């Protein structure tokens, strides 16, 4: 399962970079495509940059921190990126828990720094708040670094102002604390090429990634203009109603959304329009092979027209589960079961699963992993891995293509009919998509065949089953099934497709770029990759693209909505209702750091909060991901419904000790008092037991007699997280506002972070 997830994320990252023009490091696909490192005395002698020179260049680029020692010098002939390079590593290991790692990769031909990663121990300590950085100074330093170490490329590097804006807004992710310098050719940005410098919250360089390949650039003659492209897209764009499994939100509700009509299996997760258009022909093309996207894909025929019922609850034991996997033909008698186990999981759906790991004992050594739903007897996922795959990756001449896409589709469909017989009338096949070796369209490793789930003739985004068929042997090498169990919303009171199309086109922007075809790998030997001028079309708001797969057009309201671990104020709208507020300065700082949710330019600072809303402020400001708890997990609190939007915030607060475990009722709709807020803060700091001891923290409030949590009130005021009123009253029973709660939480996190340091 982990391997499947990793592949999906890598694919999503690539798709996002292709659409938005981002820069990917060379090591994105390292685990799956990196050639075996090769080092020899002969290689060291004949390489222009020898060992000592590589070490000198590395230390000139980034001084080695005190206490670090060089623990690895490796030469690698990396066929995946088409370079021979030095990999140099330094580490620090001292008594206690202090350690660090620094790795630097250098081109062995010309000494160019390709990659730097510095990971000190302090990086693993939670960065609760974005740092206060002088971005002007960082930009100047970055330009100086380019002029010194990348001088021959400097004239073709353009600074990305969008990356600066993202940086200024702050993020818990170091990937967003990055400055990008994009490669230009003929004045046009080149997707996935250039320099990315990432920083920690103190402004120190965390990583550097430089991508600059040998590329054959197509001419830009006869390129269509942007307006012409947008008009053509508007004529051809079709929006369709879709169910969106919003499983990363509290409760895991399924939403009704409008999404671009599905054309290929690579669009399975897309709910926001985004296209790659050939700048000369005006036709939509694939970012993988540059071929025109087939606009006539038929996904209107289910695998069966006969109505089926959901699989019964059979509650299989281990013996029956293994027998069932054998029945599917993926666990043969010649295989030795080396590991088997049972687990109960809540995410992505609540289910009980049997897992088996087996090894082939006859002929070619193969490894097989399979998971079976213990309640339904359905195959959840399956993967097969053998030595032949390794051999093909190391020697592409061994890649054979004996299976066509049509044959792969038939094989995949037969397999689905066997493993998901009760789902056939809800599954619709999408034509096979070839997976190429290093982007080489002449070498197909396997075909991916997707079967999308439809309910009420409406597709469920990202759900159904996928099957990989080996292009050489025709064997099933990978399979995964996703099928959420949440109730489907009624299709009623939705906007019309044409209105959805207008809302999408109103935010659609087109940018002329060079796209590398294929987008990764070294391309043809000695020729490099080819690049053609394309228009990248994507929905944007105020110049910032919505995150693919995490934003959607609400089919009922026609509003653009977001979910998942996204900036809470990604619209970037100015806030109109905090001017003159006593806490304006603090609130504006939090908004600028993207820590407060703003809707329609309004913060509503004086809104009085319930206990549930106050906890949600903690959760939002702490930048916790929505998927902290899966939707299947039952709520700890008896008065918090599983579908309540504050469920995840409450569960997070419980796990982080803000809430005690001996109280099963949260009372989320009752007023959040100042005393309740003080208690949350003190528990979060870990001083609740100390505060409970009488006489430890002296209180001198005028209303001391009515304060129940005297130690908590004294501590939060001593730390200046909360303040008494002008009469020196703590006002324990007064209901707090959104503004004072947010500022108190912000101050609390500063205090907590200083304690951690």
Give start-end ranges of low-pLDDT stretches.
Answer: 1-45, 171-175, 542-550
Beta-strand content bin: 25-35%
Largest sheet: 12 strands, mixed
Mean pLDDT: 83
Principal-axes shape call: globular
Structural class computed from helices and strand pairing: alpha+beta
Strand segment tally: 25
Question: How many discrete structural domains?
Answer: 4
Alpha plus pi helix count: 18
Q: Measured on Cα atoms, how large is the radius of gyration?
A: 28 Å
Distance between the termini: 37 Å
Share in helix: 25-40%
How would you portray this structure in words?
With 757 residues, this protein is α+β, with helices and mostly antiparallel strands. The protein has 4 domains: 51-215, no CATH class; 226-297 and 493-554, no CATH class; 318-482, Nuclear Transport Factor 2, Chain: A (Roll), CATH 3.10.450.40; 606-755, no CATH class.
Provide tags for this entry.
single chain, 4 domains, globular, disordered N terminus, signal, S-layer homology domain-containing protein
